Amino acid sequence: MFQKFLSGKTAVVTGSNSGIGLGIAHELARAGADLVLNSFTDAPEDHALAESLAREHGVKVRYIQADMSNGEQCRALIEQAGACDILVNNAGIQHVAPIPDFPVEKWNAIIAINLSSAFHTTAVALPMMRKAGWGRVVNIASAHGLTASAFKSAYVAAKHGIVGLTKVTALETAGEAITCNAICPGYVLTPIVEKQIPDQMKTHNMSREDVIAKVMLQRQPSGEFATVEQMGGTAVFLCSPAADQITGTTISVDGGWTAL
Ligand code: NAD
């Protein structure tokens, strides 16, 4: 759809050794961006993944280990990247439990990884973007940044929080050729979702197909999962000239979930 219009730009994508982050990394690289991939692990596969993306797309790709639950490591990630024209705050985890039983350490981890990490990375990236005279911040929120579900207190709070942070970042950078927006995916079949299927099969005594159709996609009117490629395409669009005046808003890619 787009030419290699991101050649010469560097994109840092947090939590990008799997799922949506990896899908976004592929599409940004396809549009010509050099990449910094990240996760909290430092495995040979992480570095091999970087090499394989570099070969596939003909761009520079580095893998930098940093734990997004740790503010100092979030800041160090952007500093080590050296350049950050495009920042995709994607790292995220989930935990499901009623509020009285919700483990405090899970609450703290979800708020740290899904929300505070974006504050820390943005704080270091914005001066770099201002120096470069151009920048894009793309926050990966969720349909749960706009609506709620029972038993997902920390996740829903963090995702609503990142939608708020998106608006503030947009206001603080308005008129500086820097934009900040949030993508709000519905259900996307990635490891975070795949892991929930066996538990749901047990809880509801249902087949895999029924869990997907009657539990997971019950709130997604299209009845279909969104894909990581669609998230990547949306991120690329937000980095394109067509999106120069789109800032401080959310784009739902949720098969109609938030229209209900
Ligand atoms: P995923 O589990 O495949 O990917 C999560 C990524 O975050 C992985 O690369 C993982 O290594 C990384 N990560 C986790 N903890 C980290 C930490 N402490 N430090 C650094 N990296 C860490 O899940 P996904 O579905 O690709 O989720 C990506 C984002 O999309 C998350 O923010 C999630 O909330 C959001 N999202 C997902 C869906 C969905 O249906 N899959 C829907 C809405 C929003």
Give your account of this protein's structure.
It is a single chain. The protein is of the alpha/beta class and 260 residues long. It folds into 2 domains: 10-187 and 227-259, NAD(P)-binding Rossmann-like Domain (Rossmann fold, 3-Layer(aba) Sandwich); 189-225, no CATH class. The chain contains 9 helices and 7 strands; from the N terminus they run βαβαβαβαβαβααααβ. It has a 7-stranded parallel β-sheet with strand order 3-2-1-4-5-6-7, sandwiched between helices. Bound molecules: nicotinamide-adenine-dinucleotide. Nicotinamide-adenine-dinucleotide (NAD) binds at residues 15-21, 39-40, 67-69, 90-93, 113-114, 140, 142, 185, 187-188, 190-193.
Which key terms come to mind for this protein?
260 residues; alpha/beta; 2 domains; 46% helix; 14% strand; globular
Task: Write a concise synopsis of the structure shown.
The protein is an alpha/beta fold. It is built from nine helices and seven strands. The chain has two domains: 211 residues, Rossmann fold (3-Layer(aba) Sandwich), CATH 3.40.50.720; 37 residues, no CATH class.
Uncertain runs: none
Tally of domains? 2
With helices defined by DSSP (H or I, 4 residues minimum), what is the helix count?
9
Query: Looking at CATH, which topology of the largest domain would you report?
Result: Rossmann fold
Give the assembly state of these chains. single chain
Q: What order do the SSEs take from the amino end to the carboxyl end, as H and E?
A: EHEHEHEHEHEHHHHE
Bound molecules: nicotinamide-adenine-dinucleotide
The level 1 CATH classification of the largest domain is Alpha Beta
C-alpha termini separation:
30 Å
Sketch the major β-sheet: 7 strands, parallel
Report the structural category.
alpha/beta
How would the global form be characterised? globular
